[in-house]
Amino acid sequence: MQVPADVTNLELASKGRERIEWAAQAMPVLASIEEDFKKERPLEGVNLGACLHVTTETGRLMQVLKAGGARVALCASNPLSTQDDVAASLVAHDGISVFARRGEDRDTYFRHIHAVLDIRPRLTMDDGADLVSTIHTERRDLMDGILGGTEETTTGVIRLRSMAEKGVLGYPIIAVNDANTKHLFDNRYGTGQSTVDGIIRATNRLLAGSTFVVSGYGWCGRGVAMRASGMGARVIVTEVDPLRALEAVMDGYTVTTMDEAAAVGDFFCTVTGDMHVLRREHFHKMKDGAILCNSGHFDVEIDLPALVDLAVQRKRIRDEVEEFLLPDGRRINVLAEGRLVNLAAAEGHPSSVMDMSFANQALCAAHLAQNGRRGGKAQVLPVPVEIDRKIARIKLRSMGVAIDSLTPEQEKYLSSWEMGT
Predict the structure, then answer these.
(1) What structural domains does the chain harbor?
(2) Residue 413 annotated in ligand binding
(3) φ and ψ of 15, to 5 deg
């Protein structure tokens, strides 16, 4: 019997299955976890509601969660990130409820979130915290039945920590984003490569010799700056945090204010998790043909309403490029409607790096199913160290990399205080 779902076209399922299989080839950590899950069934009988980017890698994670015994329902965490063939394949071939259509409007987006919540999840899995936010504002009847949740991205963790600090968070949530095997690799190498990939696919412009402005020098910003520089661009970093700004200087980048950078940039990429990083006063200074994009989770980092207000004309000039004509004849180009350019204009992070991120999701879900609220209060929790280390060990083994072990003498030395110089 077909599961409840709302996807664009089930006839795309065969193509989606092939693309999930291709992603799986580069995800050995999840494959190892899947084998354990099939034997141990740590999620047996658990309803799990997920709000994630519906990509091939997410498809593979859903298969692993189901192998662990979970009843899964999935919706999109961004209206433009859904890969319709993947959504169709999960419904048709894996019997997983998916509520996601690429390009869905805001009403459909939240209707799909409610459809996932209708399974009354015991665990939640979020990317951006929209699922959790909806539970706390509109579906509080579900709260007592939830054991815990996980959060995938920086923006979501920021929202959840705000909720915890204000005393409104209703159940414990593990910050998967903060695992070392997540943010050191996914945020840096994944965001770096996929963002540049999205920009090039959208524009077919040359980065070499251009001036590329990166706003925000967290792990994602580091990755974007590194890859843009590697493609031959002159990179300028803007920051509000003095420590991160200092690090960017030490890494060899020019650091200045956005007021200064606005006049010289050819490409602008925001990765801050904040709003209106590029705004009206910056648009006034930008050169003709400037290209703006965002790789932060929500579409608020570029003040699009202000740009619309300034423009005398706007038109879609390429599939993922919208041109805004200003009164003085300058043109400013916005990629992917200001949404995540790496997912809206490309395919998101490479599978090999999402392998570790989603391994954290799977193992943290199993951990919560076994431990849940036991002995803990509603707060944002770190990924257990043993999970982080287990994922790193499996990943190294899959890459054919061996590492040393401490000798008994070394262990004794590291645990003692008596042995000094």
Answers:
(1) 10-182+348-398 (3.40.50.1480), 191-344 (3.40.50.720)
(2) no
(3) -60, -40
